[in-house]
Design goal:
The protein has helices at residues 19-25, 33-36, 103-115, 121-125, 129-143, 168-171, 185-192, and strands at 30-31, 43-46, 53-57, 60-65, 75-76, 81-86, 92-96, 177-182, 199-205. By secondary structure, it is α+β, with helices and mostly antiparallel strands. It has a 4-stranded mixed sheet, with helices on both faces.
Length: 206
């Protein structure tokens, strides 16, 4: 007999919880095992610097696997909105789907948030000097890929200090790959001033 995963796409999951529902019920949301980095046969490969998504089977690491589970719900119960923070960037990504946020929605929203927005002058100036230099190098390597990542201070292709030529994914430097998502109420409250069942912390890796 075939066994249907509880995460399989479909409408038989009960109601999709709104933000008001979450406030009133304060449920514990189960995060999809793939998003937790705990799926036995699939590890997500998602690069926020180019939007590419694939995966691999830990038992067969020699080839990529298609992300066939992308339309499965990101959480159970399903929710209309998720908020995603990372510990290495100052932004909060909002993911919305009135029919229930899926893993595809999360990847699309993160890619859009980090690729379509530039780092502002004020945000750039928040960084210590060492990290400013790293962001400059990342932005320059992206703008001039033929340089092979080599950096020349003051080079003609380098964005000026404080300029808004850097994309948000440049801020991530080499840590642009999805690793896992978790709930951390203490961190969420420190960053946002509140905690909620649908606020998650994204860990990134090189």
């Amino acid at each position: 007999m075939d066994v249907i995963s509880k995460w399989s796409p479909g409408n038989a999951y009960g109601p999709v919880l709104s933000q008001t529902d979450l406030y009133l019920l304060n449920p514990t949301l189960d995060i999809h095992p793939i998003l937790q980095g705990k799926h036995v046969k699939f590890t997500l490969l998602f690069n926020l610097s180019n939007g590419h998504t694939a995966g691999f089977n830990p038992e067969a690491r020699d080839r990529d696997v298609v992300f066939a589970q992308k339309d499965e719900p990101a959480t159970l119960p399903r929710v209309q909105v998720l908020y995603i923070l990372t510990e290495i960037s100052p932004w909060c990504t909002t993911v919305k789907n009135d029919k229930g946020v899926t893993m595809r929605n999360i990847c699309d929203a993160l890619w859009k948030d980090y690729s379509e927005h530039n780092v502002t002058d004020a945000e750039f100036e928040m960084l210590p000097a060492r990290l400013k230099e790293q962001v400059r190098r990342t932005g320059q390597a992206r703008a001039n890929p033929q340089w092979g990542g080599m950096y020349t201070p003051g080079g003609s292709g380098a964005p000026a200090a404080g300029a808004t030529a850097f994309k948000r994914f440049d801020w991530l430097r080499d840590r642009s790959f999805f690793e896992s998502m978790r709930r951390d109420d203490h961190y969420a409250e420190a960053r946002l001033g509140f905690k909620a069942p649908n606020v998650f912390i994204l860990s990134l890796t090189a």
